[in-house]
Amino acid sequence: MERRAEAHRQYSSLAKMRQWDPNRLLQAPRELAMQAMAVEFPEVHGHPNRLPFEGVLTLVDVASDRAPSGARGHRVVLTRAAAEAALPSLLGMAVDYKAGWDGHDARQKCGIITTAELDGRRLTVGGFLFAKDFPEIEQRLGLEGAMGMSYELAEAHVADMRAQVWTLTRATFTGAAILLRDKAAYRETSFRLGCAAAKHRT
Predict the structure, then answer these.
(1) Cα–Cα distance between 174 and 128 in angstroms, integer?
(2) Strands (E), the chain
(3) How many separate domains does the chain show?
(4) Residue 69 in domain
(5) For residues 76 and 164, what is the distance between their CA atoms, to the nearest angstrom?
(6) 134 inside domain
(7) CB 150 within 8 A of CB 177
(8) Are 184 and 64 in contact (CB under 8 A)?
(9) CA 149/CA 185 separation, integer angstroms
(10) Interatomic CA distance for residues 78 and 183, integer angstroms
């Protein structure tokens, strides 16, 4: 009987721990908890179709250097609040590329985004390319420093459509494109094969 009572007490303690909110630890600000997200995949050593990548997708609270596709010739500013709220929508979205590496082709999906993080003004992403399905991509991306990224959005809300520079206060990420850096809306974006790539490809 005493063992049953002790077991009940332990179970009750575990149940309380499961209900404990880890965000209360040190009273961490809510915004910090939303700045990084990831989906974990089981590691498969030497997987021929899973090549890690990382890149800077865009900058937040900074006007783009040129008008992105779909902005009707307007440069844009993605607010940090909008980017933070939309961060979860990046996970599981595809990366694509266009022949010529100068734009978007949403039907030419060549990889998947598994991590997204706001690091200062940089919105960084990481994931995997389908290297076996698209061998030409790995060959092209060997040019260090030449490639950048561009986001794809839906349900974007512009604060003032009459403004010369559009401020995006709300949006949903639907994917991203790999392209030449000088063709991207932001010249400070980047794309490179992840440092873990060599391990997975040997």
Answers:
(1) 16
(2) 36-38, 51-59, 75-78, 94-97, 109-119, 122-129, 147-158, 165-180, 190-193
(3) 1
(4) yes
(5) 9
(6) yes
(7) yes
(8) no
(9) 9
(10) 18
Quick one: which of 40, 131, 164 has its CA closest to 92? Answer: 40
Nearest to 106 by CA among 49, 155, 76, 151: 151
Domain hosting 159: range is 33-201
State the distance between the two ends of the chain, measured CA to CA, in whole angstroms. 59
Confidence (pTM):
0.77
Contact 102, 95 (CB under 8 A): no
Residue 12 lies in a domain: no
CATH assignment of the domain containing 183: 3.20.16
Q: How many residues does the chain have?
A: 202
What is the rounded distance in angstroms from the CA atom of residue 171 to the CA atom of residue 161? 15
Low-confidence ranges of the chain (pLDDT < 50): 1-34, 196-202
Q: Do 34 and 102 meet the contact criterion of CB atoms below 8 Å apart?
A: no
